[in-house]
Amino acid sequence: MNAAPINQRKWWKEAVVYQIYPRSFKDSNGDGIGDLNGIISKLDYIKNLGVDVVWLNPIFSSPNDDNGYDISDYKGIMSEFGTMEDFDALLQGMHDRGIRLILDLVVNHSSDEHRWFKEARSSRDNPYRNYYHWWPAEQGIPKKRFSFFDVNNDAWEYDNATNSYYLHYFSVKQPDLNWENPLLRKEIYDMMHFWFQKGIDGFRMDVIPFISKDITFPELPEEYHGNFVKYYAEGPFLHKYLHEMNREVLSRYDVMSVAEGIGVGTDKALEYVAPDRQELDMLYHFEGIGIGLLPYEFKAADPNGFSLIEFKDLYSKWDAVFAENGWGTIYLGNHDNPRILTRWGNDSPEYRNVSSKMLSAFLLTMRATPYYYAGDELGMSNIKFDSIDDYRDIETINMYRQMESRGEDLSRFLQNQKITARDNSRTPFQWDATENAGFSTGTPWLKVNPNYTTVNVAAQEEDPQSPLNFFRNLIQLRKKELALVYGRYVLLDRDNPHVYSYIRHWEDTTIIVMLNFSASEANAHLEGLELSAAKVLLSNYPDERKGMDTLTVLRAYEACICKLNSANFRNNGET
Length: 575
Ligand code: GLC
Ligand code: CA
Hints:
The protein is of the alpha/beta class.
């Protein structure tokens, strides 16, 4: 199988998705919180990146227990972010510039301040009672369910008013919705129609594998302890619901859908995205971002870093899943992960720019739709807070409290959070070298990374070698060379611990990508490939290589994308 036939081309396969965390992008009114008008004021910046789709994290009415992932009105706009008129203007402004907009669909849970939940908790026979999961206390204490954001790590909360427990996989203010109830499902589909009729172009679906649960809530088997994601995800009716959602809503519009594929492995991925199943278009898995973390500990980074061979094997394994069916995604960071530069590159001043460009080269040359998080194009890095007081994220704060009450090692926890905490990627976007990085004239809701004086858009606009301009060049290259989108992926030099090399081959085009993931010079071993006629398309060092003769030696974090003579690849590379 060479490549996707032309009739399988889709706009969302050829798109670059740019993810914006609205709270941190641009504040228009000086309250320290990013907002919709702030994004509107930066639409030309977004347009000039060359991206095709913007994914906005939740912008809906919310008491902000989890920064908008606790929704109190799915058809309202969060007051800090603006109004529905602002939203309409934002959508129009994007469409005027040829940019599509996708929103976050957060329907595993709502806020406890949603009208449905207020009704539901008021009495056992309220019509909304069945919109949520309840356990009547006269049946005893429910079987243990762990919670991601609960101070006591308990997903059942006792509610006095009706002498019952309700389920919340996330915080106590995020009660889980009951998808078994057809009335709830209809409400969700109606709400999706509401946004599609406004003209949005798709949804990113928050923890969607969790929506179906075994509602008898049996005892968790022993082997699942500590690995509850595996047990929570992919309940018995998940695919029935997704298929229904497709039939009732998604199939009626020209839109894209992407699942947050928490807990989804390569064996199950196609169940979500194989076109003939008529469910979703894409999903993003969690396996990649788990590399380099210590097992059985909460987000603790391995002091030895990560193994590039493991990294290559994993991304190659995932590429293979979609080689003949469905379509993949690629990302290294987002609002739930630290900055990619700190986690996968090198954030020291010496290597910041070059390693950040190398990571962008990886993301923009794989066979998958890239999901690229705002700020990574500048090489923004982790802020690495010293004190728990600087954190705003419920995940970090409640985990700290949990560990505190168990008497665990808090300084070790804080040390690890410097590498892995979500707030690292949520610090305000760095526009320029003025106060607060040009993000806000007020006090930002989360501290600005002090490196904004040098790492910012204004400075990088001026510099043709900047990570920002390199990102733009990569996007242009991906648009020009369809091989980078649809071309077959072939891993080369698999056992090389420092360099990741691969080929992208489509019709008459063969492109080779070489990425040095290390801070020292390293060789790419490309024996058997005829490289003499190769042409350098893009490199992240200013003194671009002229040809390929010296190509196998790569400088620290060097990334090189070259076009080969296809005939030679066919002769040699495929064996
Ligand atoms: C998803 C979101 C994350 C949120 C959680 C609960 O993982 O990406 O930010 O905290 O779901 O909604
Ligand atoms: Ca604001």
